């Protein structure tokens, strides 16, 4: 994904985490002078110190995690759904009328890191939405089974009916999304927009905030899939034929294998593979001859997901209103997007940061709710710090 991806990642990481880190530095002094608290849930990794400071309103209380979600949970052969939903604190009713009336569809493509996926999934899960999970066909059977088992616990979650062996920069990556779209349009859920994510993303916005953002005058009826006219440095991607070595890499076919011009004289754009698309646009993608021909033509291009959505979104007369996100202005979009999802989380490298972001997100979600909060929805509980009785009477 080259520069765009690189830029995106750095921005994402900053926006998602910098806030936490800065607060940490700011509040560190306060925390270190506070009395040590008794560990109640000793089995769970505690929140990092900077996080406790961020989440806690006063110095007298602190947050304790209520579960130590790990991948082992899903690997056991028996999964009792009703117990799992409670134990992992899934939100089981729509939290507002607004969200209920604007269901979202999600496409999540994954191939590893079961724990990370489970934590992403429970953060974005809402019963009115619909979720299509594309598990890489080359993932281990145990992994697929675990995801399948989790999905089977929810009526609005399913695995894509066709699963690809996904190759980086290959057509298979684009096909995975399209497979899910074909399934999603058949869902009884009347979703309004579809958002694609990968297993290492994590939301910054709550579902309510996403719904409001997508309905804002800036984005209502418009797709978020920023791009620019294909730069000359990227032209090789669509001017020469490529071959996908399934599950491995994409290679040019060599001299003499030039591609013809794109069908219907469309102008090729280049942008990110991440999007939020309106439902009518998805129907257009799946049904129109232009979209189908472009898909067929893209089969032997390099990284087609980085031109397909953007190019279709710029075809005059279909969905373009006055979208023009060009060049440097992309950055603004990427920044906006940043605050929707943070990217490239790995539980192994930054477990504390994810714990913290997860609790921060859930706290926000629950604070915004317009329905009574069920106690099981809390990921962590706020406890009083032990008073200084242990220091003995003065
Ligand atoms: C699942 O767990 C609940 C307790 O949370 C229990 O009442 C129920 O019988 C269990 N179901 C099965 C099939 O074991
Ligand atoms: C705890 O100790 C501090 C001084 O170390 C004191 O000011 C405070 O009143 C004590 N709090 C309680 C509840 O005893």
UniProtKB/TrEMBL annotation:
Signal peptide limits: none
Q: What subcellular compartments does it reside in?
A: Golgi apparatus membrane
Give GO terms: molecular function aspect only. acetylglucosaminyltransferase activity
Keywords recorded for this protein, A-Z: Glycoprotein, Glycosyltransferase, Membrane, Signal-anchor, Transferase, Transmembrane, Transmembrane helix
Q: Polar residues bias located where?
A: 230-239
Identify the main location.
Answer: Golgi
Membrane topology classification: Single-pass type II membrane protein
Pathway the protein contributes to: Protein modification; protein glycosylation
One cellular-component annotation, GO:
Golgi membrane
Task: State the superkingdom.
Answer: Eukaryota
InterPro entries (alphabetical) = Glyco_trans_14
Tell me the segments the record calls region Disordered: 222-244
The similarity comment for this entry is: Belongs to the glycosyltransferase 14 family.
* Protein name (record): Glucosaminyl (N-acetyl) transferase family member 7
């Amino acid at each position: 994904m080259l520069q765009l991806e690189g830029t995106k990642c750095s921005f994402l990481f900053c926006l998602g985490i910098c806030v936490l880190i800065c607060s940490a530095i700011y509040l560190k002094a306060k925390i270190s002078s506070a009395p040590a608290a008794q560990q109640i849930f000793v089995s769970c990794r505690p929140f990092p110190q900077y996080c406790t400071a961020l989440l806690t309103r006063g110095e007298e209380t602190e947050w304790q995690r209520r579960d130590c979600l790990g991948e082992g949970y899903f690997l056991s052969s028996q999964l009792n759904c009703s117990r799992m939903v409670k134990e992992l604190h899934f939100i089981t009713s729509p939290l507002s009328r607004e969200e209920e009336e604007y269901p979202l569809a999600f496409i999540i493509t994954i191939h590893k890191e079961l724990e990370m996926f489970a934590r992403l999934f429970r953060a974005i899960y809402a019963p009115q939405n619909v979720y299509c999970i594309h598990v890489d066909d080359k993932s281990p059977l145990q992994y697929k089974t675990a995801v399948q088992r989790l999905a089977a616990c929810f009526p609005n979650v399913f695995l894509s009916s066709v699963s690809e062996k996904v190759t980086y920069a290959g057509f298979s990556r684009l096909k995975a999304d399209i497979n899910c779209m074909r399934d999603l349009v058949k869902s009884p859920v009347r979703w309004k927009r579809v958002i694609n994510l990968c297993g290492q993303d994590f939301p910054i916005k709550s579902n309510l905030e996403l719904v409001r953002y997508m309905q804002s005058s800036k984005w209502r009826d418009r797709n978020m899939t920023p791009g620019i006219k294909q730069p000359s440095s990227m032209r090789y991607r669509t001017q020469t034929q490529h071959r996908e070595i399934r599950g491995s890499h994409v290679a040019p076919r060599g001299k003499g294998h030039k591609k013809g011009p794109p069908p219907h004289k469309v102008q090729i754009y280049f942008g990110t593979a991440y999007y939020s698309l309106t439902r009518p646009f998805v129907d257009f993608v799946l049904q129109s001859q232009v979209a189908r021909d472009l898909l067929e033509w893209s089969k032997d291009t390099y990284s087609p997901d980085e031109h397909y959505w953007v190019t279709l979104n710029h075809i005059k007369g279909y969905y373009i209103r006055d979208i023009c996100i060009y060049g440097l202005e992309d950055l603004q979009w990427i920044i906006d997007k940043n605050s929707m999802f943070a990217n490239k989380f790995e539980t192994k490298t930054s477990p504390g940061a994810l714990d913290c972001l997860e609790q921060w997100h859930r706290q926000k979600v629950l604070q915004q709710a317009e329905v009574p909060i069920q106690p099981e929805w809390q990921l962590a509980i706020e406890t009083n710090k032990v008073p200084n009785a242990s220091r003995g009477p003065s």
